[in-house]
Design a protein that fits this description.
alpha/beta, single chain, globular, Uracil-DNA Glycosylase, subunit E, 6-stranded mixed β-sheet, 9 helices
């Protein structure tokens, strides 16, 4: 079985086994999407309305901005893997609770272990705080963090969430500048 097939099987397994309460109100699950052998994994917070409808992460306006930023560093969505810390849309797009995050944590862990990326990019504070609970996104954004997770030392790059940059124009340029650090982080 190749890595793509393994990833598909992993999602099918967790579609059955995930105990997240969010599944009761969501239209559907939104598993990770992208290249199973990606060197970069982007982790967001949770699916929004468009993602819930389409079944793919980052397909709404934040996803369009993410694609634009990938292009700015000569990459495409097809080159990376994109997922969220929870796989179902929270009602009214509220923040996921710690229980909901915990319910989806093993699924996320298995995605990361299977893909085994060189770099994990956090899109927003929720995904960053899942791994590094004492960090503040306002202080950590754009700074490479190294930490042991899932059995090995990994590189992490926290960034502001693309949606935050869409709502707060001053973050847009900060995010674009921080995004340029991804190719440099890949060389470390």
């Amino acid at each position: 079985m190749n890595k793509s097939d393994e990833l598909k099987a992993l999602h099918e397994k967790w579609l059955q086994e995930c105990a997240c309460e969010l599944r009761k109100n969501a239209i559907q699950c939104v598993p990770g999407d992208g290249k199973a052998s990606a060197q970069i994994v982007f982790i967001g917070e949770a699916p929004g309305a468009k993602e819930d409808k389409d079944g793919r992460p980052f397909v709404g306006s934040a996803g369009k901005f993410l694609a634009e930023m990938l292009e700015s560093i000569k990459m495409k969505r097809e080159d990376v893997y994109i997922t969220n810390i929870v796989k179902y849309r929270p009602p009214e797009n509220r923040d996921p609770t710690s229980k909901e995050i915990a319910d989806c944590a093993k699924w996320l862990e298995e995605e990361i272990k299977l893909i085994d990326p060189a770099l994990i990019v956090f899109l927003g504070r929720h995904s960053m705080n899942h791994f590094f609970p004492n960090e503040k996104i306002s202080e950590a954004h754009g700074i490479l963090i190294t930490g042991e997770h899932f059995g090995k030392v990994r590189n992490f790059l926290p960034l502001y969430h693309p949606a935050a940059a869409l709502y707060n124009g001053s973050l847009r340029e900060v995010l674009k500048e921080d995004f340029k650090k991804i190719p440099r982080a890949m060389k470390m």
